[in-house]
Amino acid sequence: MDMGIVNAKEMLGIEDLDEDLLDMSEDAVFNRTGEATEALTERSEYEQEVKVAKKEGRPLPRKPRRFKKKPRMVFDWERNFVEAPQTEAPLPTSKVARDHIPNAYSYTSLSHSGVVKAREKKPSLDVSQWSDLKCEWAQPKGLYPEGFPYFVRGRDSVREYLTKLFQTRITMYDGAMGTMIQKHKLEEEDFRGERFKDYHMLIKGNNDLLSITKPDIIGGIYEKYLVEGGSQLIGTNTFSSTTIAQADYDMQSLIYELNYDSARLAREVCDKVTAQDPTKPRFVVGAIGPTNRTASISPDVNDPTARNCTFDELVEAYYEQCVGLVDGGADILIVETIFDTLNAKAAVFAVNEYLEHANVDIPLIISGTLVDQSGRTLSGQTGEAFYASIRHAKPICVGLNCALGASAMAPFLKRLADCAECFVHVYSNAGLPNAMGGYDDTPQDMARENLMFAENGWVNMIGGCCGSTPPHIAAIQEAIKDCKPRPLPTRKAPRMWLSGLEDFVVESAHNNVGLPFVNVGERCNIAGSRKFKRLVMEGKFAEAMDIAKDQVENGAHIVDVNVDDGMLDGMNAMQKFIKMAVTEPDVSKVPFMIDSSKFEIVEAGLKWCQGKPIVNSISLKVGEEKFKEHALCLRKHGAAVVVMAFDEQGQAASREDKVRICKRSYDILVSEPIYYPPEDIVFDPNILTIGTGIEEHNNYGVDFIAAVREIKQVCPWAKISGGVSNLSFGFRGVNIIRESIHAVFLHHACLDSGMDMGIVNAKEMLGIEDLDEDLLDMSEDAVFNRTGEATEALTERSEYEQEVKVAKKEGRPLPRKPRRFKKKPRMVFDWERNFVEAPQTEAPLPTSKVARDHIPNAYSYTSLSHSGVVKAREKKPSLDVSQWSDLKCEWAQPKGLYPEGFPYFVRGRDSVREYLTKLFQTRITMYDGAMGTMIQKHKLEEEDFRGERFKDYHMLIKGNNDLLSITKPDIIGGIYEKYLVEGGSQLIGTNTFSSTTIAQADYDMQSLIYELNYDSARLAREVCDKVTAQDPTKPRFVVGAIGPTNRTASISPDVNDPTARNCTFDELVEAYYEQCVGLVDGGADILIVETIFDTLNAKAAVFAVNEYLEHANVDIPLIISGTLVDQSGRTLSGQTGEAFYASIRHAKPICVGLNCALGASAMAPFLKRLADCAECFVHVYSNAGLPNAMGGYDDTPQDMARENLMFAENGWVNMIGGCCGSTPPHIAAIQEAIKDCKPRPLPTRKAPRMWLSGLEDFVVESAHNNVGLPFVNVGERCNIAGSRKFKRLVMEGKFAEAMDIAKDQVENGAHIVDVNVDDGMLDGMNAMQKFIKMAVTEPDVSKVPFMIDSSKFEIVEAGLKWCQGKPIVNSISLKVGEEKFKEHALCLRKHGAAVVVMAFDEQGQAASREDKVRICKRSYDILVSEPIYYPPEDIVFDPNILTIGTGIEEHNNYGVDFIAAVREIKQVCPWAKISGGVSNLSFGFRGVNIIRESIHAVFLHHACLDSGMDMGIVN
Predict the structure, then answer these.
(1) Pairing between strand 1394-1398 and 1435-1438?
(2) Contact 1338/1303 with Cβ under 8 angstroms?
């Protein structure tokens, strides 16, 4: 289009339109939906109101919300459903109906108590008009030919016959009985007859009585309809033949007789007429009228809860009527002239109960009455709602009768014909009544008006009601004789079709935010609304009704009603509420959800509900038999049902249990004998609360959504519901947060998994489109458990929203909104993209050549000459005092001692590392148990510890267990042997837990260190060799045990001085090194650093071990074992298990695990977490329970075995032992329990990652910062060059105040805290150590890793030695020359630190892109190669961010050059990171933060997303 006549001034571009107005306009222009005009009209009214409000200075009205309807999820079973022609009406569930088993018409022998009770009212033969009261109506099988159109009772199925008949021609029903009786002008004496001539009250008008007192008249009327009218089915004269209706005449005792006589009269006339033309068999239809009471309508205008009958009374009355009608020979039953559907539901219930008791198939017809041109029943239902309410009865035919003439009925009959799945009938009045109560339509009038029904194909059967006569019926028959009957509709996909006063199809619903989701209003639930609870408790039901009205008005499709409360009579309250609610059209137009945990309350509510409701709930919690009983009851009532995901074991929490229980429930429900319609089953798989702060709750949303999809897949046509508010219960009181969580949850649960409905506060609901971006992001994080910070983020936002409410209330300025940014994706390089995960065949290897090449240890140590080894050996004892005749250090065995290959092992020939790798993957290996517990059993005294050698020692030494390796070697050797032989241990730890100079200082025995370690190891060596010789297929190994010492490097011993320590890193290293020398000289195969409660001590031990192994040039596998001190899951120094592992993994232990402090059951969650993250093998050796009051341990071997079995069954471990309280029998019991369990497989080799730690672990590659970038914020404010305030505080020695700056940084988004105290006026060495020592005692600071930052390497190293986590060191560079650079790098690698490498070399700083890349690549190649082997993922390059905007032209490209260099460096240095001092970039604009941070924002956005920059020093 090129041009048009327009108002150019007012024109808008399509970009100017808000989204909903654009959507509505497109809907209208392109005619995309029938609701487009309505939507634009509503929006127009709003815009007019806005104009007026602006003009009058009033607040603007609320903008109407419009949501585009989103499509339902379609499952395969739905997609594959094929619509097909129906050949018969939907069948009842009984076997006789489903199999079309002909009714035997033999009722005499029926013995059910209900039948027996009804027959108690049989008349005596003295008063009965019959010479017998027979109940046998079968005909001789050969009476008439077989096959349609012939019919013989007892031979042929009535259901099959009617199905054929209704599809062959439009069948004629009869006309009015009352009109025909009126023609006889009967008086009081005619009604009385001889039998009732002295009756105590007037009975004229009791037409049903005439079947007894004037049987000739009634029989004659039947015959006229059959012969003159041409009716093939006639209804019995029993419209009022119930105890309830006959109570008006005090004739309740005649009920059986009235029904029996009327049916038998009809039976005999039908048989007489059929005999005249057997091709047109006549059928008796037992007529069940509505009674003269209504269960849904109050007879008292002042009390809407009053009723003049109950559901149970109606059922009893209708049941009694059925017995009489069927005993009298009825072929079919009809529930007719329904003006209150609740009465009809009672009749249907009674009919189906009778048919079940009699085990016969008698087709049921149901006929409703719409009282006026509203097209509704007297109790307010539409025709569609009426059908939905009774369709569970599976009537063979449904239709309308009475109240209206044919022409007035037409639109309503059409609607019923459009929706009914069965055959359809009509029998209208002969017009509307005249002033005298008569009917004026002639037979020709009635025929003309009924012809429309036939011509339009709406009906299968036509008759007449009030005012009609045999001539009317005959005229209709003549008029329609050439019309074809209504075909049965195509069999459509099953659907949940509920009703209140109006019908409601669940599958067609969309809610007020556009989701294909049914809003079940929660506010009439005592647990869902405090106001509702208060009103119900106070008995203010009328006011409570307003809550229900509000819910419907605000978008609830269904109203949930729950009055469960311990302080309330729930039965009474439920009945009262439902009875009142059904009289309130604004409430009862929608279906109800009758909700209670007590089935009797559910059932009571159900009996006052005329529509088709949902019942909430039943479950397998009560056991399978009770569950079936409940389900059968509800199916008979026609209710849909919510099935909770509970079973006999309790509530389903996991996805697997949700699916399992729902599938089991489904299979029970849809099978015999229940046959619950699958489309009427609603599963509630338990929406559980997320965001509680408990980690295992975080996946509840994910699990529910996944379970929904699986349940829907395996349970065709079933629905899914849930209590949506449960999800966000942790944020109650903050609706915007709760509804945001709900919006995300429902969006995905509905659209991705097919959730159908839920209990919600419809008024407060938000669409996902309503959410601002950060709240959407936070809610998605929480619902999908995408980040461990989701709860914290939502809590922070909740606090803000609460503050906003208070501020608005108090008229204060609104607080600043917390910033949240959507996480942007990391840049991925080719080397990362091409990385292939692969199975590991062994634990990660140390860097030494002997380890990498699996070179067997020669076990030859005599010639070791390193100064550290020589110094340690200076403490060797003389042979005069030693228990040994030599102090040999050679432990190799003859190479041919045992066969080659696993499971054999020979020292010096085979690699211990290779053997353990095979062993740990073959079976769960047994470690030993407690040494101390076994020593205690010997009840040793002071003199035992002293022995001969120390009898005159200058201090008490009882308790120095390690000394017993010298003074009581037989005891220690004996304990070793017990663990090996009785316990079955394959590895035993040496008795050297306290064999360091530090620990032995308590006994002034530092000089014995070499001897203590040597002797203990040698004792173990000799015992291991002895036991191995007995079974060489199970070689035993000596594990040199390195304990934690009795000092801690991370914890101050002085409460007044957090920087005080009672040992240094270097002292620990020296002590541990000395211990290693003694253990290995004594024959240890393996080393273990155990019972780590302070990781800094462990890092010192690891440093010492690796130094020793380097000096000795041997490969001795290292095991590391941490101790979590309580249920916090942290070490004594505050680290989580994951942070502990990240801090020591640089040591490349062959196995890592937990021991001591806790019993096995208490250890379980923490061991699982360690097993989930460890890249090597995993072990556990727990205590024998928790200590008792005496300090002992009570767990028996069986207890300990049972609790340890969990570790093995879950595949968490490769080695198990015992700690405090355990003994050889404990170890043996564990071994027996786990013997069939497989060891933990090594995890898949994942891509390298920089895994740092403070008190908590931190993976750089997984990080996003507070503006959503994949970027690590390194806080700059604890850097003397980055903060004048910090500088002043440090210079003044105010370290505690400086600590507040560190806390603020962490609180404000720093992932890492940079610490730099370089200043010419300051003792940097002292300041760095003091700051780090204080910082590690501040959990709010030390929870994150540190960046230890100095231009002086000695300061870096000093800081490093007080840092228990894994930090980054900033920095080293080639500026010092290549050799010094290597020396620095090697030192840092041994400490396990990540390292920042500056882009400096011997020529100076790199400024150009080319120099940045060149220097970084050169540095990288040196670092990752021999002898350094720096992990590439732990290398961080700082290519120098230089200042732009200085006014010097050559500076202008510094930003571009840096960004380009980043990308190139990352491409050529796989897994390395890039960092930089970001504030350098904008240094020319210092003092104007908005300018500086704007420059930084642009720079980092592109440096991160376009080039892969990883971290930087920022504010």
Answers:
(1) parallel
(2) yes
Residues 1239-1280 pLDDT 10s: 999 999 999 999 999 999 999 999 999 898 999 999 999 999
Residues 6+ apart with CB under 8 A from 1205: 1230, 1233, 1234, 1237
Nearest in space to 524 (alpha carbons), one of 574, 476, 475, 465: 574
Model pLDDT, residue 593: 97
Task: Answer whether 343's CB lies under 8 Å from 317's CB.
Answer: no
Query: How does pLDDT run across 263-292, given as a tens digit for each residue?
Result: 999 999 999 999 999 999 999 999 999 999
1075-1114 pLDDT tens trace: 999 999 999 999 999 999 999 999 999 999 999 999 999 9
At 1487, the pLDDT band (50, 70, 90 cuts) reads confident
Tokens of 1095: 């990781």
Most confidently modeled range among 474-488, 522-536, 1475-1489? 474-488
Tell me whether the omega of the peptide bond preceding residue 443 falls within 30 degrees of 0, making it cis.
Answer: no
CA distances from 1249 to 633, 842, 957, 1261, 1404 (A): 60, 19, 49, 6, 30
CB atoms within 10 A of CB 29: 9
Token digits for 1438? 């700082």
Q: Which residues contact 586 (CB under 8 A, 6 or more apart)?
A: 549, 552, 553
Distance CA 338, CA 380 (A): 12
Would the pLDDT of 1074 be above 90?
yes
The confidence band for 435, taking pLDDT boundaries of 50, 70 and 90, is confident
Token pair 């199925």 in the structure block, residue: 157
670 CB-near residues (< 8 Å, 6+ apart): 676, 678, 681
As to burial, measured by CB atoms within 10 angstroms (0-12 exposed, 13-18 middle, 19+ buried), residue 483 is middle
Separation between Cα atoms, residue 1270 and residue 1292, nearest integer Å: 37
Tokens of 1144: 């020591």
Sheet holding 332-338, edge to edge: 171-172, 461-464, 423-429, 397-405, 364-368, 332-338, 283-288, 233-235
What are the angstrom distances between the C-alpha of 881 and each of 354, 392, 878, 1011, 1014? 103, 98, 6, 10, 14
Interstrand relation of 1435-1438 and 1404-1405 (parallel, antiparallel or unpaired): unpaired
Angle at the Cα of 934 from the Cα atoms of 933 and 938, rounded to 5 degrees: 110
Q: Where does residue 1157 fall: left (phi above 0), alpha (psi -120 to 50 degrees), or beta otherwise?
A: left
CB atoms within 10 A of CB 332: 21
Query: What is the chain's mean pLDDT, rounded?
Result: 95
pTM of this structure: 0.70
Long-range contacts of range 277-281, CB-CB < 8 Å, 24 or more positions apart? 278/144, 278/145, 278/150, 279/149, 279/150, 280/149, 280/232, 281/144, 281/149, 281/150, 281/151, 281/161, 281/232
Task: Please list the alpha-helical segments (H only) found in 727-862.
Answer: 735-751, 773-783, 790-810, 830-833, 849-852
Quickly state the pLDDT bin for 407 (edges 50, 70, 90).
Answer: confident
Q: One-letter amino acid identity for 1202? A: R
Coil vs helix vs strand at 618: strand
